[in-house]
Amino acid sequence: MNISDKGFSVYMSELMPLISDSLQSGQTVRIKVRGNSMYPFLLDTRDSVTFAPLIGRPVRRGDIILFRRTNGSYIMHRVYSVDKNGVMQFIGDAQYTLEHNIKREQAVAFVPSVVRNGREISCDKGAWRRAMTLFMLMRIKCPGLARLIYNICCYGNRFLKELGSALRFIKRKLNKEKKS
After folding, report:
1. CATH top-level class of 2-141
2. 62-91 in b/e burial notation, b at 16+ Cβ within 10 A?
3. What share of the chain is helix, strand, coil (3-state, %, to 5)?
């Protein structure tokens, strides 16, 4: 357990018995996000996620799942694919490599919603789910475009201003060449 002036944090291995008991009794559990592997959709200490039981629920591409790795550590990432045997591939939103061969038995819970600034956002339907899934697919299929979007999210206005300056410079250069 780590204690700071912002409160305290507990390792997932210490929390898992409580989380497992709650999920097995059909309850949901809400915890604050720690780490940056799910950025830009989930931000460290800003967002909270709700864990819900997976019992009887099919796992789909784009779902956010809490699972246990074979080394015993717990991780929450997005499902990239599920094969016909239920074996899954995962990826964090800020990552470019897939984590392979995660079995259904390793899945602990799914995330039906995120809480950001007091507002609950569904991860199961709507524009947010479509945007998250599209971004995940782009990270693998079009990493250059995904990096551009990631940079816009990270650096916001500064990045857009620099991009605008670069485009204006290119436009001026092309116009000068036309006139020559």
Report:
1. mainly beta
2. bbbbbbbeeeeebbbbbbbebeeeeebbbb
3. 40, 30, 35
One pLDDT digit (tens) per residue for the chain, 180 residues: 343 345 566 777 788 889 999 999 999 999 999 888 888 889 888 899 999 999 889 999 999 999 999 998 999 999 999 999 999 999 988 888 899 999 999 999 999 999 998 999 998 888 878 888 787 777 778 777 777 776 776 666 666 677 777 778 777 877 777 776
Interatomic CA distance for residues 74 and 106, integer angstroms: 10
Structural domain boundaries of the chain?
2-141, 144-180
